[in-house]
Amino acid sequence: MSIRHFKHFFTIFAALFFIGGRPVEFGRENTFFHGFPMAQPVISIGLGTNLTDILIRSSSGMKVYEVGSEYALISDDAEEALVKGHRERLTEKFLLLVAQTKEREEADNLAAGLRARVDGRFFVDETPASDLQGVFQVKVGDFLTRGDALAFQKKLGDLGVRDTWILREVITEEESKPAWVLIDNELKSVHQGAMLYFIPGQPESFLSYNDRSYRGIFVLRPTSKGVVLVNVLNLEDYLKGVVPGEMSPDQYAEIEALKAQAVAARTYALKNIGQFKALGYDLVDTPRSQVYFGLGAERPLSSRAVDETKGEVAKYAGRLINALYTSTCGGQTEAVEDVFEGSPSPYLKSVECTYEKQPEWSVESRFILPLMTAGSRDVTAEAGALIALGVLPPAGVDYATEAAGEEAAAWLRAALAVLKMKDDGVLEIGPGPVSFLAMARLFVAALHWQDHVDHLLLPSEANFVLRRFPQVTGQARNSLAYGIQSGLIPFSAETDNPNRHVTRAEFATALYRLIFSRLDPREDGVFRKAGPGSIEVTVGTERRTLKLGPEAVLLRDIGGRSAPASRLTFLGGEHVRWLVRDDEVRLLEAFVLTGSHVLDRSSPFNRWQVRKTREELAATLNGHVPVGELFDLNVRRRGASGRVTELEITGTAGKFVVRGLKVRWALGLRDTLFALDREFDADGKPAAFTFTGRGWGHGVGLCQVGAYGMALAGADYRTILKKYYPGVKVDKLG
């Protein structure tokens, strides 16, 4: 192909794949740029704006092109390129956010209506500088100072337009450009207004930026927001870097949940292609669009989810949906109009995060672990672990009574066997009760710790530890002091006597500390289901079926405290810990999430609490709404999920109402599903506010943790998507 013809090809390629308007149907066609293939559809992702020093590396060589009115190959096989961007001076401007909606047409109509009522530059922003997804904002500005914005805010308020919000934006005063590029230590200048293209030398090669690897090619271009770096690649490859970033397969190792996330992410990407076309790319790599971490983030399970749903999208009435999703909905999602304002959407309604087909499993044991205490401390869980290991007998022992010498020595030998240590040093100390001094002597001999005692304990330390017991002298003193210092001997110098007899529970505590300070034979995972004499768990991404011993020790952990149980009940998804001996689970501990069956119950953000002083809230609020000194907050309206959709703020400057997602921004909370409690000062005025809430995110659309819960309960990805997007159809694109 001649240079003249190639220039025509490049112009067509750029128009189709870098400016927007290219077809998005799936097919097997490959697009080539200088020999580098990319399957359709292609998407471009902004990796950074107003960049200065951009270091790009290749895995096996790359071509670098300068593209402007002409094009030139400036390197045929570069290993790395350092580009110096000319960064323009930053300044700031202020705008007013007047309204926001998920539909462009509705936003255009709102802006037109406002222009007819008041002079001002009202416009629709497709690229809000926030964590919103697929939202169009109606703004007015620019204002050079916050005071100018406040004055116009008052003017709008006089016209009845009261729900406005001050925004500050950082801008560059003119276009920035790449200034020069250092390629493999050779300096090259770049023409004014030119772009740089970085093309991997081989189809299987990759490029890296900021120590993060990416598929596809890079484009470095000048824009009104400085030099930007763009990653251009196939949509499916892009999704393989999105799904694990949005929903970690290490934490949420359920293929059907990941497939639901893949379809939602694909639908969102295609629905919003061209959102940042003014800057030369489609989406950004942050939550403003979707989190995208590139090739290095890819995981086998999430990539499988993308591959198994290739080309599948969610549609309503034949059109792509605006596939909003949230991390944790707190038990119920919210209707889109109550969060993002604007018109209702039939597929973004409030739905309860529950599953009518939720299974329930019970695990039972013939053995009931007795409660045990060592002094005032509950050591039931520790004793249970030792029984499961075979160190302690399961029955016929009163652990509150004194430990006898022969029995204690036998238990110690069993503990050493677990640790695979020789027991030739265990002393024969007779049948009588064991004192703390005898216990220390027994452990030092059995563990061959005399060298530890002689060289790792200062005489002054022994005197300090046992300063209340000068009568204890010689080697016995040092052995006891070292045992206490090492944390092995459960002795309190404040309340105990070295000659006091040790209870069986206290001796068991020492054995537990001995074993579990060196190794923990227990394993952790997620409970999936139970069968006859077995349980199924997930460890990472691996599913395992474990045989359950009929007399296994069962423990229920609630709020960090373990209690013995004869039966454990599961809904699936609970954190469990177990211990296997002789190919059987001998101990099973469940970390129970009590009092709820909602699908996102496993999220740490299903419930939360935050306290803020009046001054802290006022500082945040006055950046956007001129309330002055804050007096009080009053919830005026809630949505179907219970989220606060209208909040009245009272201050010295008057009363202001914020609505929808701006409630979350105003208060700086994880979610707007909260109850409010006040603390009062001496004058009876609110001094602090405690927000007890649920959820994390905007609360609209697919609940990611809820999707995981549904998958655990046996739902497939289509069922999950139809749950959170009522009435949608999952179909192939094109």
Report on the structure:
There is one protein chain. The protein is an alpha+beta fold and 734 residues long. Among the domains are: 3-87 and 175-310, no CATH class; 90-172, 2-Layer Sandwich (Alpha-Beta Plaits), CATH 3.30.70.1070; 402-502, no CATH class; 608-694, no CATH class. It contains 17 helices and 38 strands. Strands 3, 4, 5, 10, 11, 12, 13, 14, 15, 16 and 17 form an 11-stranded mixed β-sheet that branches. Strands 24-25-26-30-29 form a 5-stranded mixed beta barrel. A 4-stranded antiparallel β-sheet has the order 7-8-6-9. Strand 29 and strand 30 form a beta hairpin. Helix 4 (235-246) crosses helix 5, helix 5 crosses helix 17 (717-724) and helix 7 (380-389) crosses helix 13.
Q: Structural class, judged by helices and strands?
A: alpha+beta
SS strand fraction: 25-35%
Number of strands: 38
Q: Radius of gyration, Cα only, in angstroms?
A: 33 Å
Seen as an oligomer or otherwise, the chain set is: single chain
Work out the helicity level.
25-40%
Morphology call: globular
Characterize the largest beta sheet: strand count, sense, and whether it forms a barrel: 11 strands, mixed
- Distance between the ends: 32 Å
